[in-house]
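Quick one: co-fold with pyridoxal-5'-phosphate.
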Amino acid sequence: VKQEGRSALAFLVPAIREAEQQGLLRVRTPPGGERLLCFCSNDYLNLAGRNAPHAACGAGSSRLVSGDRPVHGQLEEAAAALVGQESSLVFTSGYAANVGALSALMGAGDLIVSDERNHASIIDGARLSRARVKVAPHLEAEAVEQALREGGYRRALVATESYFSMDAETPDLRALRAICNAHNAIFYVDEAHALGVLGPEGRGLCADAGVLPDVAVGTFGKAFGAAGAFVSGCAPLATWLWNRARSFVFSTGLAPMVAAAALSGIECAGREPVRRETARLRADQLRKRLEALGIRPRGSGHIIPWIIGDPSAAVEAAAALASRGIDVRAIRPPSVERGTARLRFTVGAAHTESDIDKAAEAVAWALGRGLSCAAG
Ligand SMILES: Cc1ncc(COP(=O)(O)O)c(C=O)c1O
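Sure, here it is.
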């Protein structure tokens, strides 16, 4: 993958140097462990290390204080390797990752161009940063270019998801990368719903497009079956976030037990490609079955949005399917645009062919009972 656009984060190097000269830079120190008697943990009842099979239960404090454990570093290495980046930093959730990273990177006088359907955590991070935010129409690379071309900012950042969780759609990542390069903008991609499932060896849709974002976000709470998230990029990015991402600095480190589970999730996903293949196969099967019933699910892949339109009809449809043993939830405004309430099927490796049959039969039954739906 050609490593372009890196210079957009070049401002971090002098900023880090300045913090260092002022004696304000926090760097990772090895945990005191057995060598030192810890007087800086918040593990007041000594419960964090109890009885967990692979690792301590709780970190006990922020990782900048005494909460850093080897498993955090191992997870960070594995996450960076997964997305082909130099380094990464682990957060306690995807929400914390986006809010922390965006507000640490951008500030007053900067511009964030954000796809209108970006996740709430991207929207909140952008707001918190105090940068000016321009919302670009969904998937419209030309509008992103236009927003950058207008200028009037110190630094710019383009934020998008790689696989939109409500629409199962993917932006033109190559076009966005090229636009960011042309305007020296930071290319920020959240791969929350793609990693583990989509792209070569489940390494996401940036890898699939042969694109390296400046900042890549991934979560461990979705395909990897644990909790937490990471932000990846060049080494100065991780140093900067370690110092400036407030949701990281001022929060107890990811529970080591959960970090171990996330690491094992990444390893397992890599070792057992059959999980990914099954998820894809079953998703294709369900999409085809729905299409055969006259439904046109949006997008592609393992998230299958069936646009119903009216919110009450979507709730009724979910209830009808539940009565046939299928649990799929109605997604309504404000989570999605008005008039696009939907059922959102998510298909995974646990589904068997007969599960797909059962889901398709339940949908056919609901349609037979006069369930009305938009064109799809
Ligand atoms: C694109 C995206 N980013 C971030 C998140 C938040 O992740 P977490 O659930 O780990 O907070 C989500 C959750 O659905 C998401 O869809």
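If it helps, The longest strand covers residues 303-309.
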